[in-house]
Protein 1
Amino acid sequence: MTYYWRHLRLNSTLDIFNSQYPRLQFIMEIESDRLNFLDVTVIRNNVLTEFNWYHKPTFSGRYLNFWSQHPVSQKIDQALDNRGIS
């Protein structure tokens, strides 16, 4: 029963956040021991808290050298894509 009320309260809070600006929508992920926040995955392991880099599932691991002869627009797109912004 406690889980139900906590889940209901989280959903109502999420609804309040999402009702403020229609173009800005938040999502909620419920997981047991991991939390992806910005570029970091926070892992709760018993008494330890571990941190790891978070990458989108589409992350390829490729980087573009800044001094390469590629157009600046491609370098910016690659940088934003690697940070998970685009």
Note: The chain has two helices and three strands.
Protein 2
Amino acid sequence: MYLDKISKRLDAKRAAYSSSEHFMRDVEQIAVNARAYHDPVRGGIQRSDQFIQAANSMVAFFQHQISNSWMPIQEAEQAIQRAAEGLAEVSPLSLF
């Protein structure tokens, strides 16, 4: 996972994230990748605490942003789910 991929998934035309949890899994994967690649204790080939700290800070930032916006996000996700369920129940013939 990398930032450009997350950015493309956030693109309104694609709407690839179905929930804030899905988004956070990708953000957290960046931190996991940073630790795997940059932490020599975990077998990383590069030694750079800066990348690990930046990735951890990014995770903390988005966790904070989501927790501060949790109710509106949760309400929006529920509305999207209800709309999707409602569309699934509509028969194409009932539109005519």
Note: The radius of gyration is 18 Å.
